[in-house]
Amino acid sequence: MDHGDSTRRRTGGRRKPASDRKKHQVGREPTETTVGESRLKTVDARGDTRKVRVLRTDEANVATGGETVRATIEDVVENDADPNYARRNILTKGAVLETSEGRARVTSRPGQSGQVDAVLLD
Hints:
Blueprint lengths: L22 H4 L6 E3 L3 E6 L5 E8 L1 E6 L2 E12 L4 H5 L2 E2 L4 E4 L2 E5 L3 H4 L3 E4 L2
Parallel strand pairs: 1-3, 4-9
Antiparallel strand pairs: 1-6, 2-3, 4-5, 5-7, 7-8, 8-9
């Protein structure tokens, strides 16, 4: 069964999947990147590749018009992914940060790309 398929038949009976998930289909726990002294983790990815995950960071690459500046992260102001993330200072894509340059919105996925990129808000 695929993601959108119903788990019930037309008659109301339950449908069971033909097989269990394979190891590469399982996924991992989310890397909840927090604000703090920089700490990275390298994990094996599919194929012959590796991913760098940011566990903690206190710097962000903030795009300010025509140039990009390395700014210090002071606080997570809001996070639409989960209101609790803002309270716990967790960085995800779309989170609004208070930086040394001003307020910025995260445009990268820190747990996937290994860095925090952000765009300055007006």
